[in-house]
Amino acid sequence: MAVLRFPSVVLALVGLLISCPAQTGCKPNSAADYFAGSVRCHREDKPHISPILYCNTGCSGKNPDDTDPAELHLTGGPGNPFAAEGPNLSLEQWHQDLAFLARELPKRHANAFHFVSRERFEAEVDELNGKLDRLNSDEIYVGMDRIANLIGDGHTYIRVPADNAKFPIDLLRFGEEYRVVATTSRYEKALGARLSKIRDTPIAGARDTILALTPSDETQVLRDSRVTGFLTLGIILHGTGIIPGRNVARYGFAEDDGGKFTIDIDSVVPGESSKLSWVSVPREPPLFRQRPDDNFWYTYLSDSHTVYCSFRGYKDLGKQSKGLFALIKQQHPGKVVIDMRLNSGGDYNLGLKYLVHPLRKLPDINRKGHLFVLIDPNTFSAAMSNSAHFRYQTNAILVGQQIGEKPNSYQEAREMKLPNSHWTVRYSVKFYRFVETGENVIRPDQEIIPSWEDYRSGRDPVLQWVLNYNAGSGTTTHFVRDSARAPTRRVAKADAKQPAARKIG
Question: What is the value of pTM for the model shown?
Answer without folding.
Answer: 0.81
